[in-house]
Write a structure and sequence with these properties.
This protein has two domains: about 1-10 and about 20-110, Immunoglobulin-like (Sandwich), CATH 2.60.40.420; about 115-195, Immunoglobulin-like, CATH 2.60.40. About 10% of the residues lie in helices and about 50% in strands. It is built from one helix and 18 strands.
Length: about 200
């Protein structure tokens, strides 16, 4: 097991150096995927990792254009990786334990059909947040901002009308420390980014 853990560590380090995409790990345990619901961005990789038992990760409902998968997760095949390339909602099961509720869901955020906000329009100034998230807006618009947990649950929402060149602060002091996904939109374009609350 130590060799596998070390190999995964090397893979993760290598991938983080060559790409800004992220890897999200899902534990495959007795009768559950942990976490069962995740939110990622197009280009991210999901890694299912065996914790206990004999299972599968099998796609059941995926967006048009996405590749389906059906992989065993057991002592001979302790992990499976899947890179998401299509935005949308993905559902998957363990084909052995679906009747016991072993199901998962992936929400993939992307830019399909929506223009992306560039950093010249709006930029997060501090991706490592203690109390206040600061965003610089370089256009006068009505912005909608949503903050989601990694399970995809909306934890905070803000709405602000800004002037060009203005920096706005949004209090996150009431949230527990952890990784969140922030999505902001002006109604015509949107952007998603991960932040860390310390």
């Amino acid at each position: 097991m130590k060799k596998i853990t070390y190999a995964l560590f090397i893979i993760l380090i290598s991938m983080s150096k060559i790409s800004s995409a992220s890897m999200v790990m899902v534990g495959v345990e007795n009768f559950v995927f942990n976490p069962a619901n995740i939110t990622v961005n197009v280009g991210d990789t999901i890694m299912w990792m065996l914790s206990a038992g004999t299972h599968t990760t099998t796609s059941t409902n995926i967006p048009v254009g996405a590749a389906s998968w059906d992989a065993p997760i057991n002592t001979a095949n302790q992990m499976f990786m899947y890179q998401v390339t299509v935005e949308g909602e993905y559902e998957y099961i363990c084909s052995i334990h679906e009747s016991m509720g072993m199901i998962g869901r992936i929400t993939v955020l992307g830019t399909s059909g929506i223009n992306s906000i560039s950093e010249t329009q709006a930029k997060i100034l501090n991706s490592m947040v203690q109390d206040d998230l600061k965003i610089k807006f370089n256009s006068s618009k009505n912005w909608q901002i949503g903050l989601m947990s990694l399970t995809g649950a909306m934890v905070k929402q803000f709405s602000v009308v800004t002037e060009a060149g203005r920096i706005e602060s949004f209090s996150l002091s009431d949230l527990p420390n952890g990784i969140y996904i922030i999505r902001f939109s002006d109604g015509q374009a949107s952007k998603s980014q991960r932040i860390i609350k310390q």
